[in-house]
Amino acid sequence: MNRRQGEKDNGKNIILSCEKRKADDSEINKDLKKAKLETKALKAKRPGFTDDRYNETSYYMENGLRKVYPYYFTFTTFTKGRWVGEKILDVFAREFRAHPAAEYERCIRAGTLTVNYERVDPDYRLKHNDLLANVVHRHEVPVTSQPITLVHIDEDIVVVNKPASIPVHPCGRYRHNTVVFILAKEYNLKNLRTIHRLDRLTSGLLLFGRSPKKARQMEHQIRNRQVQKEYVCRVDGEFPDEEIECQEPIEVVSYKIGVCKVSPKGKDCSTVFKRLGFNQANNTSVVLCRPKTGRMHQIRVHLQYLGYPVVNDPLYNHPVFGPLRGKGGDTGGKTDEQLVRDLIAIHNAENWLGVDAADDDLLFSKPAPDDKVGEDDCDTGPASRESSPRLDSPAPGVTASTVMTPTLASPSSGAEAPAEESPRAPPSPTPLATLPINEDSNDAKSDKVTVATQTGCAETATSAAGAAEVIDPHCYECRVRYRDPRPRDLVMYLHAWKYKGPGWEYETELPQWASLDWDEPENS
């Protein structure tokens, strides 16, 4: 009898235990659902690109460069899991160490660093789904003033010839000075879907879908290797006359800075090279490249491995890869960790290593992941995305003519690609980060003031272009004078020439540097 009673009691306990687990699971599911709804509501406050976004600033041309007037902008990011339960000041002091904790405390107290668009105390403890907003006086890097030319346009697709130096989409220190913004502002071509991507310094064919259906169709063709791509480049040395196919696997050395190398641990890939001509006078060759796969920096890494790097490749034709500059995979005995450290250290002096702020982590200056040195590469595969990502968004009520005060400045951020950062980048203890800084300000009488009424907080000046621009004395970059990038800083001798797929084919004119008898002009 006791045995039966015991079994019966055990059965009840099991049932109760199961019911308790179900109840607990139900509560967890409710919490998750609630969290998702809260996140959705907060995201709804971060609209994508609208005409207001396109009109928040304007361009001017100067010294052969397209420049953007500085403007106020709000970076946003959701609280990371590792931050939950910590004080907001402690998180910024630890995660973003370019500035002392006192700087961030003043930002928080002044209301330029907010949580869910509301002021908080420096001792506020972060919760799941908290949305951090950071107001900056945003300065963009100049790009070439060469126009983006239309190769083909119809109701389904837009094909352009992208000049070197212009990133495809917003990232790092580029937003208005990007292909998608220029097409929207100057050609009224909006809501385009990126089908593939080109590195910032790479010029040539760039395809956009005008509808999700067309973008998916083209993506599918690229993913299934139905698209034949031809690039032209200029390399150091006399490239062999015979056709060469390089099938060395490529590994990403660091996703944070986007550097690759040939490695047995890498992914299979193949590039066919054919010399088009050799210029003995400057010891360079013009080479046709046909990538059969689409790995990050595939053409450039394979050329480096073969010992014929692109003439002015600021990354893969650099002695940081050892005496042989990476030929045959020889990096001078450096480990991957040493190579990455050296790349970052050299960037401190030369400002060419980019960090892609393609995600909101970087917008709040995580020490680099996105202007990864090579997120957007000439050989990157399908990359369909809307040309209006939601990560760069204004806070509600903060428009081009409205800003919280004092402003958080955004010092050095990377460029989009592996190419050199423009000389505009100011020195910074952590050049791979976009770190918010501010000056002390105790006269913030209200949460928001308009630029037009910011007496004592901003002044206007006339640029060389003759237009007025806002100067913010609390902004680091407003206090620094930059020299313009040189022409050679704005180009890499790699050009996307022809793309051919099922029933379609597009090509561009070749750049001047692709002529066999071309020689780099002096003082370029």
From TrEMBL:
Residues 366-445 are annotated as: Disordered. Residues 408-417 have a biased composition (Low complexity). One of its GO terms (molecular function) is RNA binding. This is Pseudouridylate synthase RPUSD2. Belongs to the pseudouridine synthase RluA family. One of its GO terms (biological process) is mRNA processing. The active site is at D199. Pfam families: PseudoU_synth_2 (PF00849). The keyword Phosphoprotein applies. Pseudouridine synthase that catalyzes pseudouridylation of mRNAs.
